[in-house]
Amino acid sequence: MTQEQTSPGGPDLTRGVSPAELIEDKLLGHVGDQEILLVRAGAEIFAVDAHCTHYHGPLADGLVVDGSIRCPWHHACFDLRTGEATRAPAFSPLSCWRVEQRDGKIFVQVKLEPKTQSKPSAKPPADTPKRIVIVGSGAAGFAAAEMLRRQDFGGQIVMFGEEADGPVDRPNLSKDYLAGSAPEDWIPLKPENFYAEADIDLRVNTGIAKIDPQAHHVVTATGETVSYDRLLLATGAEPVRLPIPGAGLPHVHTLRSLADSRAIINAAQGARRALVIGASFIGLETAAALRARDIEVHVVAPEKRPMERVLGPQMGDFVRALHEEHGVIFHLEDTVVSIDGRNATLKSGGVMEADVVVVGVGVRPRLALAEGAGLALDRGVVVDTHLETSVSGIYAAGDIARWPDPYSGESIRVEHWVVAERQGQAAARNMLGQREVFDAVPFFWSQHYDVPINYVGHAEQWDEIVVDGDINARDCLLRYKHKGRTLAVASIYRDVASLQAELAMEQGAAV
Ligand SMILES: Cc1cc2nc3c(=O)[nH]c(=O)nc-3n(C[C@H](O)[C@H](O)[C@H](O)COP(=O)(O)OP(=O)(O)OC[C@H]3O[C@@H](n4cnc5c(N)ncnc54)[C@H](O)[C@@H]3O)c2cc1C
Fold it and tell me: How confident is the model at residue 408 (pLDDT cuts 50, 70, 90)?
């Protein structure tokens, strides 16, 4: 999914269009060279930018729900009245345009001034925090800080991150950026001046070594103490390292940070052959990116089919064939037992020479701080429906959080970009005293060459997979069912159906 510049399509909305031209409540038109979407929601008609502010997804193909529109690509949501990006992964609002109806026609001519977002009531409650500390400057941490300011929180925000860079578009690091087709300026989630302007004290390169819940402070790795009134833990996950000889060699990489992605790009310059260990999402996205750089790519993984555990055998076979079409060579049901110089020895006995090795064998949540602070843990940090941990005033979000998921009825922990951001947003509101239940349906996407796979819901196991459409034709929707109930849906180019499944799960309806 690349950001495309298209010439404006549809009718000139300054000349007026008939309401009958709104097919299925939407009409794509333009004002000058600006593409505008007309949307009917109930009795009203709105005019907004036609493209999502996240990755420029076409909102004309999105879903209108209760005065809002959802993007077909990564399920961001915008309020049609104000343009506000109400749900991640978009953060910037859409521009809104004035809609005039006269002589039986709809005219759009004037862009409206951006509306100030919904403000809390005039006087903040007495226990409004003065300083909120966020540990982790990734998806959840960033989304929380941004939402705190959007909620007009006037106190201090201090956000710590161990990485050298501020919040970045992590999913891109194994996709377009690694492939060399995304420019540098796509990668920061916000330009550098955003943090100063929003008065967010972002401290990069600063690890937190300890939390003292009794004293209400955190201690940095260099010994500085910073007190908090509310604390958000969003420390994410770290790549699992292989316990094999040679795993620490300089040409053996893992991929989590922008620095990691850059190191792989550097290593790829002039490389002839790459070895990817692990057929996970990150492993295979890396394989695709390296193929785009014309490097021979071998994937070694213990499973029979890539991604079978998450997506099932049918999608696993498809993903394998897709990568093979692009020249990836698989060595499945095999592992690497040692790396000696450029030579990797396989369990099956072969030796493979590779200039660069990328290990993508999964991640583990970073729980040391939570554990040290005595927070309840259960394969993650246990949080309640409001994302609060077992210690009052300390919240957790993102890859570390295990939360009660209302749709599956289970406590789950996932490693999804959009979930982390939405949890960050909900935690921000809850740290300000709103008792919002986190009930967003999990969503993730993965991209392999020109094929996006979208996934809604959560199915750790299933007894049936129902396939609508044709996976090989890249036009399909798979339902993962357990005892007759659809727990999750994966799709390729069935974006509206994916959005509809998300909505049905939110409403507790059958999918
Ligand atoms: C290359 C890549 C591609 C991905 N692609 C997709 C995708 O396509 N779709 C999808 O849904 N998901 C994807 N993911 C997963 C997604 O990025 C994660 O689920 C998401 O980033 C989790 O957000 P988080 O805030 O919990 O953690 P992170 O974004 O990892 O942020 C954690 C932050 O905490 C900091 N930190 C940790 N410990 C400390 C400490 N002690 N002190 C200070 N700071 C600390 C880290 O430095 C980091 O900044 C991808 C992940 C990677 C690595």
Answer: confident
Residue minimizing CA distance to atom 27 of ligand 1: 236
Residue minimizing CA distance to atom 18 of ligand 1:
417
For residue 353, the tally of other CB atoms under 10 A from its CB is 12
Q: Which atom of ligand 1 is nearest to the CA of 178?
A: 1
Domain 131-238+364-431 and domain 450-506, same fold? Reply is no
Q: Is the peptide bond before 89 cis (omega within 30 degrees of 0)?
A: yes
The pick from 415, 421, 425 for probing ligand 1's pocket by mutation, whose C-beta has the most ligand atoms within 8 angstroms, reads 415
- Ligand 1 in reach of 300 Cβ (< 6 A): no
CA dihedral 356, 333, 303, 472 (to 10 degrees): 90
Is residue 159 lining ligand 1, measured as CB closer than 6 Å? Answer: no
CA 377 from centre of chain: 24
Q: Please tell me the CATH superfamily of domain 450-506, with its number.
A: FAD/NAD-linked reductase, C-terminal dimerisation domain (3.30.390.30)
Q: Are 280 and 361 in contact (CB under 8 A)?
A: yes
Which of helix, strand or coil describes residue 169?
A: coil
Say how far apart CA 396 and CA 382 lie, in whole Å: 8
Backbone phi and psi for residue 368, each to the nearest 5 degrees, phi listed first: -55, -45
- Mean pLDDT, residues 143-157: 97
Output the CA 138–ligand 1 centroid distance in Å.
5
Name the residue with the closest Cα to ligand 1, atom 50: 171
168 Cα: distance to centroid of ligand 1 (angstroms):
9
Check pocket membership of 170 for ligand 1, CB cut-off 6 A. yes
Using a 6 Å cutoff on CB, does residue 82 contact ligand 1? no
444 pocket-lining for ligand 1 (C-beta < 6 Å) = yes
HSE of 129, CA atoms in CB hemisphere, 13 A? 24
Architecture of domain 131-238+364-431: 3-Layer(bba) Sandwich (3.50)
For the whole model, what pTM was predicted? 0.96
Nearest CA to ligand 1 atom 23: 139
Give 509's pLDDT tier (boundaries 50, 70, 90): confident
Domain covering 13-111 assigned CATH 2.102.10.10 in the classification: yes
pLDDT single digits (tens) 304-358: 999 999 999 999 999 999 999 999 999 999 999 999 999 999 999 999 999 999 9
Spatial contact of 235 and 153, defined as CB atoms under 8 Å apart: no
Q: Is 255 in the pocket of ligand 1 (CB under 6 A)?
A: yes
Instruction: List the chain domain ranges.
Output: 13-111, 131-238+364-431, 245-361, 450-506
From 137, 170, 254, mutation site for ligand 1 pocket: most ligand atoms within 8 A of C-beta: 170
Classify domain 245-361 by CATH number: 3.50.50.60
